[in-house]
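[[Per-residue structure]]
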Amino acid sequence: MDNETISYTSGQRIDYIDALKGFLILSVVMCHVAGFCIGIQDDIPSFQPILFEFRNPPFFFISGMFAYKAGTAWSGSYCCKLIKRKFMTIAWPTILFLAAILYVHPSFHGRTFLHNSIKDLWFHWFTLSLFLYFVFYSIIGLLFSYFKNQLFKSILLLTCGTIFYLLFSVQSVYNNLPIVDDIKVTLGMEYWGFFFFFILGVLARMHYTHFVNILDSSIFIAICIFIFIIFNLFSYPLQSNHFNLFRITTYVTGIILVLKFFKKYPPKGFLNKIMTFTGKRTLDIYLIHYFFLPLALYENTSIFRDSPMPIIEFALTLSISIAIIAMSLLVSYIIRLSPISAHYIFGHNKKQHHNIPT
């Protein structure tokens, strides 16, 4: 296969990527149900920390893969058009739904759900960050015109991504940045480190043949499985003494393993149809599902906080999350029945079909 393309005509490949995105958005909703509705925090034994390693980094990685277009003639005009398009399809819907959620859910049974502060603007941090990543990528893209060699472009990308991770994800470095805290909060800089995984996705797309060879290497996958299991078995001491090493290692191996799993074992039949359709509506689900979170459940689930039962809690959050996603998809379907509402709410291009944000 050409190393600069990902087949859009192979149903298998499209299905496994969309099915993977369906799994990822399910894990996102499960996290929010566990956190907001049941009160599962980092100090409570749960499967949620492990799911986190399979969740946000792969999302940004996949977004980076589809952001790269071989042969793009980077220019100021092209970048402006790209940023405008991503604003309409990612940032604009986020702003609308953020305003709605701030109005509907200002508090939560005595616990502060939203703080009515500038940080609330980053309540939908995932989509706002994703939009900024396209902005950052566009700026880097302008530098591509100075590099004809693909290797130099790859080095530029990896360097920029690494710098972002070191500056904004390594807490000791981030805390000492000569930037006022209010500016950090306003710009959501604490989330900029995930740009590294977006860049990894771009690089995987640029060198797709090599990337697929890596995924198909039994030895490499075995090493990733071993590292992932060992790091999670000893997560408490590792996070206490080597937090940054733990995070970057579990994030990268998590990306590799979840991609490998869905590539090798794509869902079949009816399950495939459901997961693929869900994967094509991840932005809609992400923005809508907050309205269906059963926040009142918190008062009746103290047993999971006082006497943790990870398996039962997992089953409960999974069941609730599936119902929430179903309702979110229904609302999404209703909104998209009208090209006008789809355009002004989700930034849907009225002239062509648009599948969610990657």
